[in-house]
Amino acid sequence: MMDEVIITAALTGAQQGKEANPNLPEQPDEIIQQALDCWRAGAAIVHLHARNERGRATSDVRVFRKIVNGIRAASSDVVINLTTGGAIAGLPLAERIAVVPELKPEIASFSVGAAMVGRYDAAKQAWARDFTMPISYAEMEIIARTMLENNVRPELEVYDASMLNNIAMLRAQGWLSEPLWLNFVMGIHGQVTAATPKNLMHLVDQLPPNALWLASVIGGRAHWQMAAVAMALGGHVRTGLEDNVYLERGVLAHSNAQLVEKMARLARDLGREIATPAETRARLKLAHAAA
User: Fold this and answer.
1) Residue 290's pLDDT band (cuts 50, 70, 90)
2) What does the alpha-carbon distance between residue 172 and residue 104 come to, in Å, rounded to a whole number?
3) What is the CA radius of gyration of the chain?
4) Contact 9/38 with Cβ under 8 angstroms?
5) How many Cα atoms sit within 13 Å of 113 on the Cβ side?
6) The model scores a pTM over 0.85
7) Mean model confidence pLDDT for the chain
8) Could you tell me which of 5, 1, 2 has the C-alpha nearest to residue 274?
């Protein structure tokens, strides 16, 4: 028997905005409301980014605090996962990591390697997307140590198989606590693992001992199919407008909660029940319970 599936809702992200889907939340009140709606729809975890008043990615702790406090004020027990990403938006590491000691979320994202992301527009004969998500080993040490010192569970973002080697190095130094929680991010154009069942099985076969994992598949083309594969393999899943703005082909999602509802239905159709926040805390051995 497979255990309950943990659904994470990734609400906003650091890149696309309302131009991609007008229902993507950007301001704190929007994010708070959609986080609560996702929790009621079956999400055990909400993964949160923040935006400034112009809708651009920000690492301002004051904005994150407003969002976190708003969710908690509604007596929600949803697990909060705060981003430390945003390098592609030009946010420096010192600012991005500040949410960990300041807010002590139960989980925080941790990209465990650099990746080049690109897409060439043949019709225009130009790069439609061309950037690098940079990180050094010294920076990874800073992130790992900061999370360990603050009892925050890192969600280890894995964009390709080589990043599993980085996890092994960090683990060998004692900078990662157990259980490891890995997120296989797939489907982005560039130096990121393609979203195929064979590739996902290859990553799962290389998991560190006793690690738990989820899959985040970017883009509507493979999002739902690969979520089904991940759940069939015993893994956990992420959905939300950060990753996929479509409910189905050509149909924009009305909200993050609508995507969570569909993911929960898919899980149950595959014979898996949905993990509650309490069950998720127990599985991941989270240190900071909801207030």
Assistant:
1) very low
2) 24
3) 17
4) yes
5) 22
6) yes
7) 95
8) 5
